[in-house]
Amino acid sequence: MTGTLVLAGTPIGDIADAPPRLLAELEGADVVAAEDTRRLRGLTRALGVHTTGRVVSYFEGNESARTPELVEALAGGARVLLVTDAGMPSVSDPGYRLVAAAVEAGIKVTAVPGPSAVLTALALSGLPVDRFCFEGFLPRKAGERLGRLKEVAAERRTLVYFEAPHRLDDTLDAMAEVFGAERRAAVCRELTKTYEEVKRGPLAELAAWAKDGVRGEITVVVEGAPETGPEELDAAELVRRVRVREEAGERRKEAIAAVAAEAGLPKREVFDAVVAAKNAS
Predict the structure, then answer these.
(1) In sequence order, which residues have a C-beta less than 8 Å from that of residue 96 and are 6 or more positions away?
(2) What residues have CB less than 8 Å from 69, skipping those under 6 apart?
(3) Which parts of the chain sit beneath pLDDT 50?
(4) What is the 3-state secondary structure (H, E, C) of 157-188?
(5) Handedness of CA 94, 100, 106, 112 (dihedral sign)
């Protein structure tokens, strides 16, 4: 008989959030694959449990090489527990390759549901939660970051991002530029930890707040694009959207066509607005 791959959520802050099943799986797994074995030792000490199975590291640097070894163990009947430093495996953390390989090999995959920074931030944001999409981490380079943001500029679902604290102000500036300064958002930091904070407001206001520096693990939730009709987009807004796309690397002709499609307007109308703005300046 083949074994079972278990994906287990771990606390994102408060150790008391660990689900009871996590303790049982840690004690009973034949193999525990951990993103950081030192963090795993800290977790088991805090939970008062002892792992009896073999402990191996499974992180971005060795994920490709380690996956076949773990699939072989699973094929041999082992119960393999996969944990990351915080939250659910595979969600911006190692896990996807192993799950895909296990499924391909016909091995059972199950999960121990646990804390998730994505869902926690979404629930605390005060923004619509009926429809949302998770965008993970944005690219570090400014041009690539703008390009990724403009891809979802017209997205009407609530957007959720992870971000490093030292890049937060630049990211919020870029979001204000692409999505609009008044688009509502929430910056959630240190969720479930001692210094948990949720800062809500327009993107421009949050960007200004972040200039002083923000510490901790960050999740950003952004309101989706409003339901707008052609009459709601004035010439200045059309020109702004074209400029954002050009700065992200698009040619003007392509940017005009894309903005016209988003706004439901003839390309000529957007072109005329761009020309008029250029002549005025």
Answers:
(1) 90
(2) 56
(3) 230-231
(4) CEEEEEECHHHHHHHHHHHHHHHCCCCEEEEE
(5) positive
The reported pLDDT for the residue numbered 88 is 93
3-class secondary structure, 122: helix
pLDDT at 1: 80
* Cα–Cα nearest to 37, from 3, 82, 96: 82
**Residue 33, beta-bridge partner list:** 56, 82
> Which pair of tokens denotes residue 188?
């959630």
The separation between the first and the last C-alpha atoms of the chain, rounded to the nearest angstrom, is 74
109 by Cβ neighbours in 10 Å (0-12 / 13-18 / 19+) ranks as middle
Question: How much is the pLDDT for 232?
Answer: 65
DSSP β-ladder status, 158-163 and 218-222: antiparallel
Residue 136: CB atoms within 10 Å: 12
DSSP 226: P
Q: What per-residue confidence (pLDDT) applies to 80?
A: 98
CA distance 200 to 214: 14
**pLDDT tens per residue across span 166-187:** 999 999 999 999 999 999 999 9
